[in-house]
Amino acid sequence: MTAQRTPSSQRLHIAFFGRRNAGKSSLINALSQQAVSLVSPVAGTTTDPVRRPMELHPLGPVVLIDTAGIDDEGELGRLRAARSLQILDETDLAVLAVPAGEEPGEADARLVEELKRRGTPAVGAVTMADRDPAGAVAQAERLAERFGFPFWACSSVGPPGVAALRQRIIAAAPVDPSEVPLLADLIAPGDLVVLVVHLDAGAPKGRLILPQVQAIREALDAGAVAVTVREPDLAGALRALGRRPALVVTDSQVFGPVSKVVPSEIPLTSFSILMARHKGDLAELVRGARAIDKLRPGDRVLIAETCTHHQQKDDIGTVKIPRWLQERVGGKLQFEWAHGREMPADLEAYRLIVHCGGCMANRRLMLSRIRRAQAAGVPIVNYGVCIAHLHGILPRALTPFPELGELMGGSAG
Ligand SMILES: Nc1nc2c(ncn2[C@@H]2O[C@H](COP(=O)(O)OP(=O)(O)OP(=O)(O)O)[C@@H](O)[C@H]2O)c(=O)[nH]1
Ligand code: SF4
Ligand SMILES: [Mg+2]
Description:
Layout: E1 12-18, H1 24-32, E2 50-56, E3 60-66, H2 74-86, E4 93-99, H3 106-118, E5 122-127, H4 133-147, E6 151-153, H5 163-172, E7 192-197, H6 210-221, E8 225-230, H7 234-241, E9 247-250, H8 255-261, E10 268-270, H9 271-279, H10 282-292, E11 300-305, H11 316-329, E12 334-339, E13 352-355, H12 363-375, E14 380-382, H13 383-390, H14 394-397, H15 402-405
Parallel strand pairs: 1-3, 1-4, 4-5, 5-6, 7-8, 7-9, 9-10, 11-12, 11-13, 13-14
Antiparallel strand pairs: 2-3
Helix pairs in contact: 11-13
The chain binds guanosine-5'-triphosphate, iron/sulfur cluster (SF4) and magnesium ion.
The site of iron/sulfur cluster has 10 residues, from loops.
């Protein structure tokens, strides 16, 4: 996969924060060597987060996120600042910009507190160091001491430049934003992995979808043999292979028929369960699935989707999941929906949160939401785990994770 084609959800997210006019956009332009972000002496030039995918050697594909000043004022300004802070949910590494010769303000201090609370790695930039190089170096040392993470003097327009800051960012970046693989840790070199795809009218023409491609790639990287079949061809393929697969992964839509063909001693799961683990906290989502059984008619349920995709007639989030949940509960539930980056402030009001698979979101964002739900004491499940539970296939789909099967009452593995 080239850097250009790496989906945003798989890239390390590096976000730039600071007050208005701190030099955030200039820094991003200098680091990416492109004039992507608008720069001007007018405070509040950047009003909405701007995402810039790029290659940052040797880290690989990243997304640089430019944000609006966190000290913005007035009603609109405060909304803009709040939107900048929302970016923390998806930030793998934060860069805090403080202009040379200026003391950090209250907004900077609050941001640092929040970074510490979340455990988000950070690097500081004393920007505009060309104005007073020696003073900026001394300031960087003071700020590093005060805030507890490295600060570096830099300039977007002249010496000392941004090369040293770039090295600092690379050194501080978490190694891999998706530290939990899709399936690589479930297989060994030489193992046989069978992937079952469902090519119905809804499948994209002429290609496989991302989780399928990613699974094949991970199996190959692990030195395993990956065989991809359609569900009707599975029985014949298993006979022809003459070897016991170490793992079978299927499209959830055909889990039922596939589970009848795959002998019970072979670990079987679905792409959506693997994605739930890769993107979030599978154990917490499985706990959320158990909460479905405690729902009562009239309970409030939040359905959250991280993008605002075009809704189809039999939409999963607005039609199918509400229908299946109400059938299970035996009465009406009160549904509310959250689309995009915003989540309601008072999660305590809900008995359950059902989150989408987050294919457009990074792991950091999914984990932030799971932690928020935990902090509010509200169970959270995602579409994949929820549907698996409602269709009675969750215990079998957890067979590659016997420790999680116990959460469902010891029925798996
Ligand atoms: N001398 C000097 N001026 C700089 C440097 N970086 C930015 N500036 C100037 O500082 C002003 C603000 O820069 P921006 O990059 O727009 O700052 P920002 O933090 O993105 O500002 P907002 O989007 O308004 O929050 C502009 O006039 C830039 O030309 C620098 O390294 N040296
Ligand atoms: S699973 Fe993907 S496409 Fe569906 S709502 Fe979530 S982010 Fe959007
Ligand atoms: Mg800006």
